[in-house]
Each structure stands twice: as structure tokens, then as C-alpha cells.
């Protein structure tokens, strides 16, 4: 009885051991399952191997336990059938635990895809990746091309804009500093100054806008040889005007700035000059500070005239006096030219400058005049008539000789010009009919139809050309001349008959067709 009980104990202990082993195996499966199911995709194949390794180890352990207890099994009354049932149940339980994990660890495609097809798929995948890389490279190249094109376009636009505004800037800098500022400034250019140095000085004095532009402008336009000295320059001057002024040379000392100019045309009378003295030749509609009355007061001031006679004896030594019948003693002695004036200028100074200019232009002829026993007053009287009777140098020289021929022959000069002057019409607009119908019986010392000689004095202020003609006439034997009233051409003749024919042809016949043309204006 005791032995039977011991066997039953051993039998029950074996069963319990088997169950314990199976329970331990199930526990191991529970621990492995999460790692198998939720492992990373890259570790799937390794998980399958480990799974089967665990299964093998578990089987070996069970086998060892069965072997270890084989004697106990054989001594028991458990039969082969019962043991087989137990092992079958354990195996079945094991299969149920492992099979789902094995199937879940592989995808259906991997289970069914042959190795050759897997190689093709890998190749296709590689080709696809290479194709994507090539496409990406093409897109990168296109993007780079667009970026480069955009940069080039931007540079082109910026370059064009820079050139345009640069041109506009340079063009602006070339213009006068101020078109309306006529202020004159004294600028000293030191000796040895370069165009760059001069430009800096002028920019500092606000004569020009840009020193660099001045430097390159003068260089490109071949303005060189600038001279030192003091210059009167204005902000309204152009770069060309400034450059040309600097080439002429300055003064050793500052000179008062020029405010304007007075232009006296050749052949003007003193009455005409008195109107011109108030006109500023530098600007239209601009007036000088001088008036007509002030001018006439000076030229008729005896104290001033006596002072001038003492200052310029060669010119005014035989000046006619008032009793001679002259209208103005200084008529014919004021040289026609352009005169500048400053803020310090007076009318007296301007008139004296005119007398000084006539004296300077007469200097080369004083000796010759004395050598011919003539006087300056006689020469200027012939020059004044010649100025109005002809309009070119050749005709003037011939006209002057005709006057000398008539005087030498004891004839009157017979000039309409002197009568128009006596009537106060010289310099005014007169018709050809009025000119031809002058009063040759006029009671006046300037009536050179009735009075012999040169007349009391000049009737105009002659040009240098007329003065030269009076001093150096062209020799001829003519006593008469007449000018074509339409062309101004002068026709000369020796006899009165030839002269009358020329008068009929070139004057009378044309008066009927054109009686409104101006003659001696």
C-alpha cells in the first residue's frame, strides 16, 4: 500500500512537471511574440530565425526533461498512449502559439515572390531611383539657367539705367552753373595751373558745376594753353566760353567786372549814339545805367572838350569850333565800336573811351596826313561822306578819289548826304524819291552843292574802312558817281553827260517802279 502511494506521488509529480514545462514554454512565447510582431521592418528576417531557434531550444529542453525522468515514466503505470496524448497536446499548444507569429512576420508578397522576381524588383527600384536623380539634376540645371538669365537681365537693366542716368548727369553738369545769374566774379588763375586745378577753382567759386567734367570737357575738345591772371567770369557762361576766355589771358590785377556792353554801329551820328547809349548789347530789352540826356550833356560840355583836346592833340588839334556851324564839335571823332562798362563806369568815361579808340585807329595815318598838307578834320569829313555813299571798300576808295578830284578842280562835292544831315534826316528812313528830291538850295554850311570845300566837319562817325579810303584812295579821273538804287552798285563817270545817263538809267527809271526803298538810313 505504501509502495502504491509512492508511485502515485511520483506519477502526479511527473504530470505536474510536464505541465510546468508547458506553462513555462507558453510564458516564453508570450515574451517573444511582441518582439516578433512589432519589430522593425529591417529585422523581419532575423526575427524569423530567432523564432525557430527558440522553438528548437524549447524542444530540446523538453526532451532532456523527458529523458531525465524516463525511469520514473517506465516505472509508472502510465502507458505509451497516455504519454503520446500528453506530448501531442503540448505540441498542438506549441503550434498554436508559434504559427501566427511566423505568418505575421512576413508579408504575403514575400511569401509568394520568387527570388528571381525579387532581383528584378530591386533592379527596377534602382532604375527608378536613378531616373529620379536624373530628373532632379535636369530640374536643377533648368533652375540654374533661369537664375543666371534673371541675373543677366537684372545686370543689363541696371547697366542701361546707369548709362542713361550717367549721361543725363554729365549733360546736366556741362550746362552753365546758372542761366539767370549774370553776376561777374573776379577769378585768379595761378601760373602753371592745370585744367584740373582750374576746374577746382571755378567749382569753388561757383562758376561751373563740376571740376571733373570741366577737366575732361576741355581735354576732349582740345582746349589747352590756358593762361594765368585775373579773369572776370560769370555763372551763366558755358564751358566753351570759359575755356576760350582762359586762352586769351588774364590781367595782372583784378579788373572791375563787366556789367554790360554798348555797341555803336559804323556811320552813326551823335544823335543816333545818344539813343544807343542806353541799350545793353549783352541782353535784349536790358538797359544800361546811361541816358540820352546825360550823353548829349557830356559831348557838348566845353570843359570836357577842352580837356580832351589837351589829352589827344593829334586827333583834336584842328577840331572845328562852334562858330563854324557844326552841330556837335565831337561829331566824327567818336569811334564806332563795342564798349564794355562796369559798375564804376560813367557816361563821361564811355565818351572818353570812344575818343581814345578813334585816336588809336588814327595813329598810323597822322604822319601821312601832315605830309599831304591835309588836316584830320578834312580826312574825317571825306571818310564820313564815303561811309554813306558806298557799301564796300573798293567803291569807297574810288568815291574818296572823286571827292578829291572835284575839290582839286574847284568844284563842290555835291553830296546829298551832307544836306540830309543838315536837315536832321540822316539816319532816318527816307524814300528814294525824298533822297533824290533834297533841297540843294538849303541855307546851311553843310550844303555841299552851294559851298566849296569839305564842309565844317564830319557828318557821321566813320568806320576804319572809310578812314583808310579817305587816307589812301584809288586814283582815277572821275568827277561823278551814282549808285544803283536797287543794288547799291556805284557807277563812275568823267563827264556830266555820262553822269546824267547813269542817273536816268540807275535812279530815275527805277523810281517809278520802286519809290519806297530806303536810301541813306
TrEMBL record:
The keyword Mitochondrion does not apply. It is a single-pass membrane protein. The keyword Membrane applies. The lineage of its organism: Bacteria, Bacillati, Bacillota, Bacilli, Lactobacillales. It is found in: Cell membrane. The record marks 389 as: Important for catalytic activity. This is Endolytic murein transglycosylase. Residues 96-137 are annotated as: Disordered. Its main location: membrane. Belongs to the transglycosylase MltG family. InterPro entries: MLTG-like. HAMAP family: MltG. Its EC number is 4.2.2.29. Functions as a peptidoglycan terminase that cleaves nascent peptidoglycan strands endolytically to terminate their elongation. It catalyses: a peptidoglycan chain = a peptidoglycan chain with N-acetyl-1,6-anhydromuramyl-[peptide] at the reducing end + a peptidoglycan chain with N-acetylglucosamine at the non-reducing end. The chain crosses the membrane at residues 143-167. Keywords: Cell membrane, Cell wall biogenesis/degradation, Lyase, Membrane, Transmembrane, Transmembrane helix.
Amino acid at each position: 500500500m505504501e509502495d502504491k502511494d509512492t508511485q502515485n506521488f511520483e506519477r502526479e509529480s511527473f504530470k505536474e512537471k510536464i505541465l510546468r514545462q508547458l506553462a513555462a514554454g507558453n510564458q516564453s512565447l508570450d515574451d517573444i511574440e511582441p518582439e516578433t510582431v512589432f519589430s522593425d521592418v529591417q529585422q523581419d528576417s532575423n526575427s524569423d530565425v530567432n523564432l525557430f531557434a527558440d522553438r528548437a531550444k524549447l524542444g530540446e529542453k523538453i526532451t532532456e526533461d523527458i529523458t531525465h525522468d524516463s525511469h520514473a515514466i517506465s516505472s509508472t503505470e502510465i502507458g505509451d498512449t497516455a504519454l503520446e496524448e500528453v506530448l501531442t497536446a503540448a505540441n498542438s499548444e506549441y503550434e498554436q502559439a508559434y504559427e501566427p507569429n511566423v505568418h505575421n512576420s512576413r508579408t504575403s508578397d514575400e511569401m509568394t515572390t520568387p527570388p528571381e522576381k525579387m532581383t528584378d524588383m530591386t533592379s527596377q527600384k534602382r532604375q527608378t531611383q536613378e531616373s529620379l536623380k536624373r530628373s532632379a539634376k535636369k530640374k536643377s540645371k533648368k533652375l540654374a539657367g533661369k537664375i543666371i538669365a534673371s541675373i543677366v537681365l537684372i545686370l543689363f537693366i541696371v547697366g542701361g539705367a546707369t548709362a542713361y542716368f550717367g549721361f543725363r548727369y554729365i549733360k546736366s553738369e556741362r550746362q552753365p552753373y546758372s542761366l539767370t545769374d549774370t553776376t561777374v566774379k573776379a577769378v585768379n588763375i595761378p601760373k602753371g595751373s592745370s585744367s584740373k586745378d582750374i576746374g577746382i577753382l571755378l567749382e569753388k567759386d561757383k562758376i561751373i558745376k563740376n571740376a571733373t567734367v570741366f577737366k575732361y570737357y576741355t581735354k576732349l575738345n582740345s582746349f589747352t594753353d590756358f593762361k594765368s591772371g585775373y579773369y572776370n567770369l560769370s555763372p551763366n557762361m558755358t564751358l566753351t566760353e570759359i575755356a576760350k576766355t582762359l586762352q586769351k589771358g588774364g590781367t595782372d590785377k583784378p579788373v572791375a567786372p563787366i556789367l554790360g556792353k554798348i555797341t555803336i554801329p559804323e556811320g552813326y551820328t551823335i544823335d543816333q549814339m545818344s539813343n544807343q547809349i542806353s541799350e545793353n548789347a549783352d541782353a535784349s530789352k536790358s538797359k544800361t545805367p546811361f541816358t540820352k540826356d546825360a550823353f548829349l550833356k557830356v559831348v557838348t560840355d566845353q570843359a570836357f572838350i577842352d580837356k580832351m583836346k589837351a589829352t589827344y592833340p593829334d586827333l583834336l588839334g584842328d577840331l572845328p569850333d562852334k562858330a563854324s556851324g557844326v552841330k556837335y564839335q565831337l561829331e566824327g571823332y567818336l569811334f564806332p565800336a563795342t564798349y564794355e562798362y562796369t559798375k564804376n563806369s560813367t557816361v563821361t568815361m564811355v565818351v572818353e573811351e570812344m575818343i581814345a579808340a578813334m585816336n588809336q585807329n588814327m595813329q598810323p595815318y597822322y604822319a601821312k596826313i601832315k605830309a599831304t598838307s591835309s588836316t584830320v578834320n578834312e580826312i574825317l569829313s571825306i571818310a564820313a561822306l564815303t561811309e554813306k555813299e558806298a557799301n564796300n571798300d573798293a567803291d569807297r576808295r574810288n568815291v574818296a578819289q572823286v571827292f578829291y578830284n572835284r575839290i582839286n578842280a574847284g568844284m563842290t562835292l555835291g553830296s546829298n548826304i551832307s544836306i540830309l544831315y543838315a536837315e536832321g534826316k540822316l539816319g532816318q528812313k527816307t524814300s528814294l524819291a525824298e533822297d533824290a528830291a533834297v533841297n540843294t538850295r538849303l541855307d546851311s554850311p553843310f550844303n555841299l552843292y552851294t559851298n566849296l570845300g569839305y564842309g565844317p566837319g564830319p557828318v557821321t562817325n566813320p568806320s576804319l574802312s572809310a578812314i583808310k579810303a579817305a587816307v589812301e584812295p584809288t586814283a582815277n579821273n572821275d568827277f561823278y558817281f551814282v549808285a544803283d538804287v536797287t543794288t547799291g552798285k556805284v557807277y563812275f563817270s568823267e563827264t556830266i553827260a555820262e553822269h546824267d545817263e547813269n542817273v536816268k538809267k540807275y535812279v530815275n527809271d527805277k523810281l517809278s517802279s520802286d519809290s519806297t526803298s530806303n536810301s541813306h538810313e
